[in-house]
Amino acid sequence: MAFNQWLRQRRKLLDLTQGELAEQVGCSAVSIRKFESNDRKPSRQLAEGLARALRVPEREHQAFVQFARSQPAPNDFSLPAWSAEEISWRGAQLPTETIELSERKSSTVLDFDLFSVERPQMDVLEDGHTLVHLQASGSVTGTMEGQLQVDITQILVPKPPTMDYSQVLPMQIGTNFKLISGEDYIKGNHIGTMYPMMDRNGNGNSRVTASGHVISVSKGLLSFFLNYVFVEYEVKMVEGIGTGASGQMQLHPKK
After folding, report:
1. 60, 124, 151, 208: which could join 192 in a potential S-S bond, CB 3.0 to 4.6 Å?
2. pLDDT tens digit string along 183-204?
3. 148-194 pLDDT per residue, tens
4. What residues does CATH 1.10.260.40 cover in the chain?
């Protein structure tokens, strides 16, 4: 992602107008507009002002200035595939009981730990009968754009001692899922963009609404697929950006 795109998204995320941001930085609204349209690069002084106004951690200001004044260098990454032998930095936070659709009437909410060693599993019941068994499969993958110096292993450990400034940039992330019932299944994935908010200590949270894509459906669950739709995928960061996340997937009956 180019700096001008990141700047526009970050400003909107912080609910600032171009004029309000300009006032905090000490420049004109015209300058902010030119930065966002990529017609001009900020001077070092203005880049430092942008870093403060946009709440970039102080320890990352120098890297941010380089990012603001240079062309972006996109990087993609894929997290290692999950292995049962891996040591989790925290256990899966899953409800032990099953959830009945009738209890929620309009929707069923499935909570899971996105980066846990244990993959989420739970039964979804309707009128006392098991409707489908949820179990995530595959590995978590994502794309972070910008000038990156990110150690991906930070995803699986407690808050790292240092945090790359690029972790305040928008992050594309997707998860594979698999709904199974007996020998039948629905396979698909969720893809969305996270816009992290982070304080000076590296703590923060992020919310993303993403689309769910069904890749394949077996004949036995075709009716279920035609009557329910994946409507929302939410990620909330915990114990610092990039060190863990919990997710929420909702299944809503189609009207």
Report:
1. 208
2. 666 666 555 555 555 545 544 4
3. 122 222 222 223 333 343 444 555 555 555 555 556 666 665 555 55
4. 3-72
The DSSP symbol for 219 reads: G
- Read off the tokens for 124: 């979804």
The CATH number of the structural domain formed by 3-72 is 1.10.260.40
Distance CA 149, CA 146 (A): 9
In whole angstroms, give the CA distance from residue 249 to residue 212: 9
Please report the sign of the dihedral spanned by the C-alpha atoms of residue 178, residue 142, residue 170, residue 37: negative
Instruction: Give the whole-angstrom CA distance, residue 3 versus residue 140.
Output: 26
**Exposed, middle or buried by CB within 10 Å (0-12, 13-18, 19+), for 186?**
buried
Q: Whole-model pTM?
A: 0.33
Which residues pair with residue 129 across a beta bridge?
126
